[in-house]
Write a structure and sequence with these properties.
- By secondary structure, the protein is an alpha/beta fold.
- The protein has a domain of 213 residues: Rossmann fold, CATH 3.40.50.
- Helices cover 40% and strands 14% of the residues.
- It is built from 15 helices and 13 strands.
- α3 packs across α4, α8 crosses α9 and α9 crosses α11.
- The C terminus is likely disordered.
């Protein structure tokens, strides 16, 4: 790489800079890659399978015809990141962070997480043989905590919010000399996640989607998606970029609210150094995107505005409904956060902002088994029946409308 650049003030730093944040303004940094590095990474897997012997990335892009047809879309795709080793997109970021930690000689890597980043780091650290310490809010889903514990991480459930866990992790990493993988603080998380954009491009045989819809909490996944497409454009592999759409819960919509505030402003001279990303009191069933203060918020806001994307916040009820819709019409089972993009697409279609022939990709960031309780609240319980064929008939046939009969030639004229 060539070095770093500040997301806020654009101040550059050399490649050997050993800090975490911009020394000029204290904001997040972005890694600057030269043309040869980008081309090398595009042509070969950037995930080191010798030091991390897991298959990370290379996830499928599924055409979701029935799901798309349900709202009149002809070119809907699902990027299924649920088949990563820990069942979420976070493995991409964890891999790059762990490799960086190993290169720096660190013995311990820490992270603050709502759940997925913690279980992901625990998984990748176990494969690489480095100690992981995970800070989570005490409200994190049991499945994600169990994952992290099973992988051998030290899991610390903090009495407080994700933002409280983030600050404690930051202090602990500084005090004890740990490598900090936390979103925003570590610019290499964006480097891992941007590869998802390249995989979408490769799966589409070099075509560029019209829009990519990304579940958004901290904003890191969305900003990484935009970076991936911009880098493809910068080396001449594509001649246009997609719109990057932000999908959030109404209960955790700091980034969406900031985008709308900027677009509704009468100011015509936007300076990123003067933009304050909003803070909210987050409360949503989609725990993976439940964030009071987005730690990569400005980078995400810039990505949405620069790409011409939309910022959509949908109610939790729509997110829960989207879980069963996606699963039953595509075969992909999302956790609540991963269902938010489909809920957002439905809203965009309803608002007339997506044309029927647009090529739309929804990023499915986490598996539904990570939060079974949420899915169960949407679909209910199985039918309990007696041990008889009559009971089967009553449950399967008698409680559903009879299928429409095909009209015969003789019946057409009755």
């Amino acid at each position: 790489m060539d070095g770093y650049r500040c997301i806020t003030c654009d101040e550059p730093q050399a490649a050997d800079f050993d800090g975490w944040l911009c020394p000029s303004c204290g904001s997040n940094l972005d890694v600057i890659n030269n043309r040869d590095t980008i081309l090398m990474q595009v042509r070969q897997s950037p995930f080191d399978t010798e030091r991390i012997p897991l298959q990370i990335g290379h996830t499928p892009l599924y055409p979701a015809e029935r799901l798309g047809q349900s709202i009149g879309l002809r070119n809907l795709y699902l990027k299924d990141d649920t088949i990563n080793p820990s069942a979420s997109s976070k493995d991409r970021a964890s891999a790059f962070a762990v490799l960086r930690a190993l290169d720096s000689g660190a013995e311990t890597i820490a992270v603050a997480s709502t759940g997925n980043a913690g279980s992901s780091l625990a998984c990748v650290a176990a494969a690489a043989g480095i100690r992981a310490v995970v800070f989570v809010p005490e409200s994190a889903p049991v499945a994600k905590l169990t994952q992290a514990l099973t992988f051998g991480a030290t899991v610390l459930a903090v009495r407080g919010s994700y933002d409280d866990a983030f600050e404690l992790c930051l202090s602990a990493a500084s005090e004890f000399g740990w490598f900090n993988r936390s979103t925003g603080i570590n610019p290499f998380t964006r480097e891992g996640k941007k590869i998802c954009a390249w995989e979408i491009w490769a799966s589409l045989d070099g075509r560029v989607p019209d829009r990519v819809v990304v579940p958004t909490g901290d904003g890191n996944l969305l900003s990484a998606m935009w970076k991936g497409w911009r880098e493809l454009e910068s080396v001449g592999l594509i001649d246009r970029v997609p719109k990057i759409d932000c999908a959030q819960s109404l209960g955790s919509a700091a980034i969406s609210r900031t985008v709308h505030r900027i677009r509704n402003s009468e100011s015509t001279n936007l300076r990123w150094s003067e933009v304050d990303v909003e803070t909210v009191n987050a409360s949503t069933v989609a725990d993976s995107i439940s964030v009071d203060r987005p730690r990569d918020g400005l980078a995400a806001v810039r990505a949405i505005i620069e790409s011409g994307g939309e910022a959509i916040a949908v109610p939790d009820a729509d997110i829960l409904a989207a879980i069963s819709e996606m699963a039953s019409l595509s075969g992909v089972f999302p956790e609540p956060a991963a269902a938010a993009p489909w809920a957002a697409v439905k809203q965009l279609v309803s608002d007339g902002k997506i044309a029927a022939d647009e090529l739309v990709v929804c990023l499915v960031s986490g598996n539904g088994l990570k939060d079974v309780a949420a899915a169960q609240s949407a679909v209910g319980q199985p039918q309990l029946i007696d041990l008889s064929l009559d009971a089967v008939k009553a449950a399967v046939f008698d409680n559903r409308p009879a299928p429409a009969r095909k009209r015969t030639e003789s019946s057409k004229h009755r």
